[in-house]
Amino acid sequence: MIDISSERLKLIPLDNYLLQIWHQQGRNAMEAKLGLNPSNWQIEDFFQTETQEALANYWIPMTDEYLVDFFWYTNWEIVLVEKNLSIGGIGLSGLPDKHGATMVGYCIDMPFRQQGFASEALQCLIDWASTDINLKTILADTPLDNIASQQVLKKCGFSTFGLIDEVQHIELLKVKHWHLSIR
Predict the structure, then answer these.
(1) Which residues, including other chains, have CB under 8 Å from residue 127's CB and lie 6 or more apart?
(2) Which of 16, 29, 97, 182 is found 20 to 30 A from 135 (Cα to Cα)?
(3) Top-level CATH class of 4-140?
């Protein structure tokens, strides 16, 4: 198992087995399998819907297809070590494409926001992903009004590029595009 950790956090990539437990039995059952305290995430409806859609339509099928490289296609639980508690999730959109790019996304449980956890988790994942010699760029999109997420990306060295676009994802959103050059 891959072990990514920082002073306060541990990131745990969910394999297909753990994702199936989450999908079929709920987060608490999956957290119990990991030996974590139940988190009962408090996240906005948009993120709840997005997470459930990713679980059923992306993470489960992709981790089934990419058994060896599943960690590029899954949710990584962001665990607050001192409480043995999942406080969010982070993940990539897959192995670097032919241009050397992949995309990152993350969400933090409401009671744990504005404490630097998203930046810390993102930096951990960037450091880990950067060891892949094929990775040249990490991309991200943020809703135009999600200033906190934009600050996380800036803190981790991302910069904006391109135009602000409207994209259909769960709902119609205006987003900023971000990138981080790795090499």
Answers:
(1) 4
(2) 16
(3) alpha beta
